[in-house]
Each structure stands twice: as C-alpha cells, then as structure tokens.
Amino acid sequence: MTSIFRTAMGAEFDRLHPRLRRRFSVGLASGEACTGRGVMETIWHGGAWVRPFLALGATRNILVPRAGRNVPFVIENVPYTDGFGRETVSFVRTFDLPDGPRRFDAQMVLGPRGDRVLDYLGTHQHLATDLRFTAEPDGSLLIRSGEHRFREGPVDVRVPELIGARAEVRESYDDRADRFRIRVRVVNRRFGPLFGYEGSFTATYTDVGAQGVRPGLRPVREEARA
Question: In degrees, to the nearest 5, what angle opens at C-alpha 200 toward C-alphas 99 and 25?
C-alpha cells in the first residue's frame, strides 16, 4: 500500500522534493500523521461583495472570512478510515485570528479511478471537487481543483461557474529556511480573485496508531458520492 497522493500522482510523485514526498506519504500504510505549525504572512480576500459568501462558508468551516497578516496557524493531516471504508486524510487548517480561531476543513480520499484525489470541504462535506497533483520542475507541488459539486440528501448538482471558484495551491520546501512554503489562491472565472493565503511552516510526524484521531477533527457528516 502507498499513500493516496503517491497513487494519484504515480511516477511523478518521485519528482517532488524529498521533504514533500515525506509529507505527502502520510497515510494508513505509513502509520504517520503530519502536523504543520507556522505563520501565514497574509490572508486576503476580494472586494466587499465577497464577504457574505465567505461568512456563509465559514459556518461550515469552508474558507476564512477574515483577512490578516502574520497569523499563526496549524494544519493537521491525519489518516483514518471513514464510515464508508475509504482511506481518508484530513486537511484541517486552524488560523489564530485576533477575533478568535477560524477553521478551514477538508478531507481527501482517492478518486474511484485512482488517478486523482477527491476533496470534500467543510464540516458536512456538502462540497466536493477533484484535485490534480503535479510535480513542478523545481520539486514543488502544484494542486489544481476542478468543478465543485454540491450534495445534500437527494441533491447532487454542479456548482455553476458564476458562483463557483477554482483553487490553486503551491507547496514547496525552502532548504535555506528549513521550512515548507505554501500559497493558495481561490479565483472565480468571472469575478476574479476571491480568497487566498501565503505563509510557511515546519512539520512534525506522529504515530497515528498511538495518537489516534483527536475529537472534532473528523467531519460531522460524511458523503459517499465520489
């Protein structure tokens, strides 16, 4: 067995920087979880019209409605088996903003064809999108999202591009600073940049079998549809 990320990327995974290979090897096979701690140099969002959408998403831990600079944050990547028997890796980010902590939750599983990762967003996994992972020439990792789908009960619809958005994540390793660096941009094709952040962090690894999955990390509701 390998991690869901190595499976999705295939041979391209080996082109990543060694520290990125270690970080994205977390999974049930490795028995490791990864916790990153660092600082977001900036958290930004688009114009005032974006704020109501960010505030709505924040009620389910999707996106962050506050901008800020030099914001401490933690990212928890913990593997576990979800209620449908799928290997899942959490991507739970907690930002320590002045008005209180804000979370941006995602849970990732391997897509049904094994060539991509499926990203469920929020506490109730109402939103899902396919992610494509690419190794860049410098060993960094580029992640691009596809279209979003909304699921609730019998409802299963594609989110229209007018209100939807695409995300681009770049993660690299800075050998001089001995830190991971991350940059995220969420953009609407018509209205432009909506939200993003940029910062750096260090990572520690723990035995997930010994530590387990802390309460509150898993979503309230899990979605079976891929």
Answer: 115
